[in-house]
Amino acid sequence: MKITQIDCHVLLDPGYDVGSTSSSQDDIVVEIHTDEGVTGIGETDVNPWIARSCINAPGTHTMGLGLAEMLIGQDPLQVEALWEKLYVGSAMNGRRGAVIHAIGALDMALHDLRGKALGKPCHELLGGGAVKKSITPYASLQPEVSSFAVYRRSIIEWAQRAKALGFRAAKIEVTPCGPYAHKGLKGSHEDMTEVIGEVRNAVGRDFTLMVDVQYAFPNADVCLRAIRPWVEFNLFFIETPLPSDDLEGYAHLAKEQPIPIAAGEWLATRYEFLDLMDRGKISVVQPDVGRVGGFTEAKRVCNLAEQRKLTIVPHLWKSGISIAAAAHLAATTARCAFIEFLPDELCESSLRRELVSNELQMVNGEIALPKRPGLGVDLNREALARFKREAEVVTSTLSIC
Asked: 0.90 exceeded by the pTM?
């Protein structure tokens, strides 16, 4: 079997809002085709035009080869070897950032392809197979509103709805300040405390609650002053309170207060995670399967986290493709407590809701191990074409790419 073609689909939700802190509005989906008619799909969470350029750009020398051209003609079943080929061949231009994120989409597609070719779900071919019977999702909640008063009401209602839908855990995005204030929300640190307390009261003490502040605090001292009152809310973690590169600040937070700190959603490769774990002293490791470099690298990160006895909660903010990928990864990872999940009923992105069919479903708070070959999800071709047309309109309007 040989790889014959790679298609990159740049997608955009027609209702996208550039003021929204939500990458569920766009996507890049890659399809890797073979001479035997088997195709694998993957996606990654990065600007899709940038990712497409990383994949399709031609190489001009041996240290900066093009990703697509390195794969054409190769045996797609040699997934791990192809990851090394892509990493080494693109090293001068890549090693971290967008090139690794693009490799992540390709690696995910190769794992999907291999599973389909062999008639096995990805988790059976990933690091020794499944170690659990089901996966526990948490509802990731971010109301699409721009008024803090409306946000306060919405996030309480959404958390209650998530519990009613059968979720045993939820993460609330509380970002009324900082560089990524969602849709221009404005609120104080005291407002954040009040909202978290109101949500905790609404869902009860038996419901697992997490908080994502999306890099809201400029340094550890400001963060400590803001979050000390949050100890009483019994949070499973606080996600990304500081800039990703402030490793000393993360270590300071871990030392000076008891709430577990989670981070890693933006990181690429195990090397960045080693710094975050060993220097940043985080408690909860959050590899995003696409961004970190695909299944191959995500599993390496999970192995390193397990060696350090850290909790693993994969990040995702895309479509049912990434949900499936996180579920397969979680199935093979004993210390994976939850996976992120954007429930259709509480997500306003039509791209998130409509892109795939046969999406994994939660029943009684759990997702059963996927049984279909590969990732186990299929593209909704009508939706794919619609979101692709929207991206093409934006591209032609801006005269780019």
From this structure: yes
